[in-house]
Amino acid sequence: MTALVVRDLSKRYGGVLALRNASFTVASGELVALIGPNGAGKTTCFNLLNGQLAPDSGSIELDGRGIAGRAPRDIWRLGVGRTFQITATFGSLSVRENVQLALVSHRRRQYSPFGSLGDLHVAEADALLTRLGMTEQAERPCALLAYGDLKRVELAIALANSPRLLLMDEPTAGMAQEERGALMTLAASLAKSEGIAVLFTEHDMEVVFGHADRVVVLHSGEVIASGRPEDIRADPRVQEVYLGAA
After folding, report:
1. Structure confidence by residue, pLDDT tens digits, 30-78
2. I need a surface site. Which of 27, 48, 51, 230 has the fewest CB within 10 A?
3. Domain edge (last residue) among 162, 179, 199
4. Residue 118, exposed/middle/buried by CB under 10 A (0-12, 13-18, 19+)?
5. Is the backbone of residue 22 left (phi > 0), alpha (psi -120 to 50) or beta?
6. pTM
7. Are 238 and 177 part of one and the same domain?
């Protein structure tokens, strides 16, 4: 079942066309890598998908529902989660409290930032942390965590809205080599078991070709190739504009 359908998506910044008629799909349970050189349009594409930007033209459909131009909070509640290249957690709060906050937002509960999260969604938060192997760290402040563990917390936060689509922006950036494969294996397992469509950007080609089901290649804002990892690796144009330099 196709979860995400992007058709002819375009975005211009003044005289610069950052994304030009980009089209691709992501199915439920599928991991799709969006790759390309710096300035190819990957971040612009992600910001369009989660509502930080509105497209100039084109459409974005999640489970057949148009989401282009909606506010980020509305897209979050419709089932789009996102992790960022630089982890975004509250360092003074515990691991569990960070996940609780995400659950409070998704459930539209009232909460004072000067109060205590108390028992709000504790069981759900702990269930997410268990899935990500973070149970023993639940009460530690995020400021004290190793970077790889912070990435897992951010993934738990992104899963708090039971996403249909998970956007992962450079998920292994800054991680040790042995941690990268473990995180992506975990993401793949969650995608398959929960039927989550995963779209990720990544500069580490070992991660891309080792974990992606399909690869979409952007160059100067255009999709120049899309297909299985082995086909993309062998594509002469992709080798010329990206893989040769990578």
Report:
1. 999 999 999 999 999 999 999 999 999 999 999 999 999 999 989 998 9
2. 230
3. 162
4. exposed
5. beta
6. 0.89
7. yes
